[in-house]
Amino acid sequence: MHFLQPIPESSSDLEEGVDLPHAHNPWSCNRGQNILVLNAGFLGLQGVFTVLFGSATAYLKSLGLGGWLISLSWLAGPIAGALFQPYVGVWSDNCSSSLGKRRPFIIAGTVLIILSLIGTARAKQIVTLFSLSSGSTSESHIGLVIFVEICIWILNFAIQPVQLGLRSLIVDLVPQEQQHEANAWAARFTLGGNILGYCLGSVDLPRHLPFLGRTQFQALSSLVSINLLLCTSITCYFIKEQKSGVHDSSYHPTTARSGIRDLWKTLRTLPSSTRTVCFAQFFSWLGWFPFLFYASSYVGALKRQDLSIGSQGVSPRWEESARAGSLAMSVFALSSFVMGLVLPQVMERSSRFESSLSLKSSWRWNPELFTLRRIWLAGQVIFAGSMLLTFFKRISVAYIIVGAIGFSWATSAWIPYAIIGTDIQRQIQQAECTEMNDEGAGVVAKVMGIHNISIASPQIISALACSLFFWLRGNDHAGEVDATTYALLLSIAGSAAIASAWVIRDLPEESYHQM
After folding, report:
1. Where is the signal peptide (predicted)?
2. What is the pLDDT of residues 340-367, one digit of tens each?
């Protein structure tokens, strides 16, 4: 049984016998089931990200990696996103598998994510099992570091086809006028995955679920892997993709020149609004990368500082500081989830608001003020302002700051994808009107890949900058980093959001107000 049916690209789809009982508007029919089916994968994938953002840094420190080396480890994700995901997008758009264009990549990526995540969590046991007993301690440590790094890189590359496939399915299957609603639900499931992952991370899992692993990271990785498998299975089983008619028989996925040529062609024809979104995302993610990876460490450092003062020089209690960091990220996740529920509803009210009433009552509160552009702009301003407030080194203030940034994260998880999805659907409809169906239908994953370059490339810059920052501050070995160092890093990162807000000002207001 399949819930969500593909949108017909032409009348030939019906002639070829594709089962389209609700072809006119597949999103609206069986809406509740479609929401679950199309977005379940985001819930599972975000759980993986919460492990990387919330627990992996502390885990790598426990293995003896220094701060600068950990920052370099996080280059894997941005590099994979910038170089590998666009190539996967070209490959996916030209895929002629019987499973469809997206599901083969989601399935393969899920398997590799689970294997690499479990390998990372159980690295010590695996390295010990295959190492020589006569090996020195230093050699064993080097082997452990190399193995963990390999697993991290495989994990980050495996995430790309899953992420791209899930995003592309929304554009493939949901009509233009409902792209912002579908992407709003994707954001809600993503933010729900944040809450699930961070809440699991704050529980003493080895105590309650010892069969999942002897350490917190092992148990958490096992739970997240099970969740990912279940969620992507729901999406892949119930989604029904039509066999692509866009396949180019001359295209070979191993030909890098073909992929670069296709991406360059797509880049040149991007709508101006999509190009503006990509520029805004570039500056925004210069700031998001340090926040996502170091906000919990910043709160933990504040907690250690309070504990040291309160205990008159007694060494800090790392367990309490770790729980404080997890609590802060749970506040962030909850805040962003609530905003993800509320903001689309505000937009829906705004789109139904009578313009004539607005003119007659301009002095009153006007819901028409809440457009996608303005909400995203406000989110970036709040993000920048909150990051600059991190120098107020009180843990209560830190919780408020992290919670406020949840608003910004909710807008970033929803609005850019809604705008781009709408632009792509417009391109597809224009191509159909001019009888150029292949040009429209084959662009979805390529545009998503280009957008991901605008997200991933600034993370590469940010990761290198963070590594250099810690090295200059003298934090080049495993050990404690003080709250002042983290506050300075976050404040510098927040300035990038100001540039993002400036770019967002150039987005057209009217094109994305009523969707």
Report:
1. none
2. 888 888 777 655 544 434 444 444 445 4
Phi, psi for 165 (deg, rounded to 5) = -60, -40
The closest of 426, 455, 417 to 183, measured between CA atoms, is 417
Instruction: Write the pLDDT tens digit of every residue in 468-506.
Output: 888 888 755 555 678 888 999 999 999 999 999 999 998
* pLDDT tens, position by position, 1-53: 555 555 444 434 433 333 333 344 555 556 667 878 888 999 999 999 988 88
> Are residues 92 and 160 in contact, defined by beta-carbon separation less than 8 angstroms?
no
| Residue 281 DSSP symbol | H
Number of domains in the chain: 1
Q: Residue 460's domain is classified under what CATH number?
A: 1.20.1250.20
Within-domain flag for 54 = yes
Q: How many CA atoms lie within 13 A of 371 on its CB side?
A: 15
Cβ 167 vs Cβ 109: under 8 Å: no
Residues 6+ apart with CB under 8 A from 474: none
CA distances from 207 to 203, 213, 214, 224 (A): 9, 10, 9, 17
pLDDT of the residue at 356: 39
Residue 13 lies in a domain: no
* 97 inside domain: yes
Q: The tokens of 440 are what?
A: 């429209």
**Whether 160 contacts 114, CB under 8 Å:** no
Q: Domain range for residue 132? A: 26-245+256-354+368-512
Directed axis angle between helix 31-54 and helix 272-310, to 10°? 50
CB of 399 within 8 A of CB of 328? yes
For residues 46 and 190, give the distance between their C-alpha atoms in angstroms, rounded to a whole number. 6
d(CA 108, CA 163): 12
In 3D space, the residue among 102, 89, 108, 431 whose CA is nearest the CA of residue 260 turns out to be 89
Residue-wise DSSP of 15-45: HTT---TTTT-TTTTTHHHHHHHHHHHHHHH
The number of beta carbons lying within 10 Å of the beta carbon of residue 10 is: 13
Residue 21 lies in a domain: no
Nearest to 223 by CA among 203, 237, 240: 203
Q: Tokens representing 289?
A: 């990368």
- Among candidates 319, 318, 305, 501, which has minimal Cα distance to 412? 501
Q: Phi/psi at 190 (nearest 5 deg)?
A: -65, -45
**CA–CA gap between residue 35 and residue 14 (Å, rounded):** 25
CA angle 458, 101, 98 (to 5 degrees): 155
Residue 440 or 459, more confident:
459
Q: For the chain, report the end-to-end CA distance as a whole number of angstroms.
A: 30
